[in-house]
Amino acid sequence: MAVAAGLCYGSLGTDTAGSVSIPAATCGVVGLMPTRGLLPGDGVAPLAGELDTVGLLARCADDAQAVLHAALDAAQAAALDAAATPAMERWRIATCWIHPDPAVRLDPAVHAALEDYATECSARGRRREARLAALPQWIRLAQTLLYAGSAAAHAQALRGQAPALGALARNLALAGAAMPPAWAHAALAQRRAQVDAFVAEALADSDVLLTPALPGPVPDWSQVLTSSPGFEARRLLDLFCWLSFVNYLGLPAIVFPIGRDAAGRPISVQAIARPGGEAMLLALARQAGHSRFGGRGFAQQPGLPLARSRERV
């Protein structure tokens, strides 16, 4: 919210199941979740170590790149510069709009915005449809590691030997403590094969895969707050249905706005790339920001002064 309100140019954030991507999608900012391990997790309170990823939020892609550059060490920053992708004339995109879970329904306005953006991307490039039949399985595997990781990270608290946990962390940890350890071992053992399967289906001949960030309009807070009288479980589940599996795969992904709905709220897309594809994802988001919002982002606020864009923070 601070980034969207213009209180800062960018912010670091941790993402275990969508905690960078969801705020980006709901606030109309850019959310980058890098390849797992690109940004160090030193000093980060763990939730589930095999999923936790340090990412960032910014008002536009240029600001996101500046924040990422400042967070990297010298060698990593040089590699990012070397991989910097100029405005690409011919994007090779794969798209997947339909979730295999029939309970996840794509809102017509969101669908129209996604189609319009995909048409723009592929106007002088190539587009193909991808089918992510294994998506429900990846979500289950991510949930397994979320529960198991939470139990491991908060074992002392569960035994009463550390400060009490919040309700969410405690519920996740309790679920993990009741789960057979073999489930988490199996989820980890097959991760490499699952990543290979995803790349073969979605990225074999494509630069990026585009999916919805959210399948429906940005919800009111009362619809996703479990203690609210207006709570709607489906709206809460919809926040995660396209996002949490990326943490399991450990691939880089970026969420950025591509339009507005009838209420003026952002409609965002998620783009996923191969490991190390951060520069390409930022280039894609940059092009969308310029073509759709004049380079100033969804909130139409000035970006980070270029003279300071390389300062370390």
From TrEMBL:
Belongs to the amidase family. Keywords: Ligase, Transferase. Pfam families: Amidase. One of its GO terms (molecular function) is ligase activity. The gene is gatA_11. Residues 2-282 form the Amidase domain. It comes from Bordetella pertussis. It comes from the Bacteria. The lineage of its organism: Bacteria, Pseudomonadati, Pseudomonadota, Betaproteobacteria, Burkholderiales. Its EC number is 6.3.5.-. It is an enzyme of class 6 (ligase). InterPro entries: Amidase, Amidase_dom, AS_sf. This is Glutamyl-tRNA(Gln) amidotransferase subunit A. PANTHER family: GLUTAMYL-TRNA(GLN) AMIDOTRANSFERASE SUBUNIT A, MITOCHONDRIAL, TRANSAMIDASE.
